[in-house]
Amino acid sequence: MRLEAIRINLSDIEGVGIQYMTHIQNIGWEATWKNNNELSGTQGQSLRLEAIRIQLTGPNASNYDVYYRTHVQNIGWTDWAYNGNPCGSAGYSYRLEAIQIQILPAGSAAPGSTVTHFHQEPGQTQPS
User: Fold this and answer.
1) Fewest CB atoms within 10 A around its CB: which of 30, 32, 65, 118?
2) Under a CB-based contact definition with an 8 Å cutoff, are residues 101 and 8 in contact?
3) Using an 8 Å Cβ cutoff, are 66 and 100 in contact?
4) Rounded-to-integer distance, Cα 124 and Cα 6, Å
5) How does strand 17-24 pair with strand 40-41?
């Protein structure tokens, strides 16, 4: 199963919001960040999500780090990305099949390896 869109809602940490953007089949990276519970991706277009970036916002955001990893078609689970770095793949036409997210106090140890969280075919544009 592919993911076509995602909404992420963060409501239980005082003074912290969440932003995210996705890399979409045939479109590439979205032009703008989506905020708390906004739709990122497409609906009814059968376009797969291929990668995601997630970051925290708000006056207390610096007290936390957001870690996330994705399960990618033909790759499996990636390592953990964090604080706005891309996670998934670009240029290979692989779909995201699952996403796991953890929010930890700033400076905490990562939940696992952070080495290989993004697989990008040479020549693909990095997100800005």
Assistant:
1) 32
2) yes
3) no
4) 23
5) unpaired
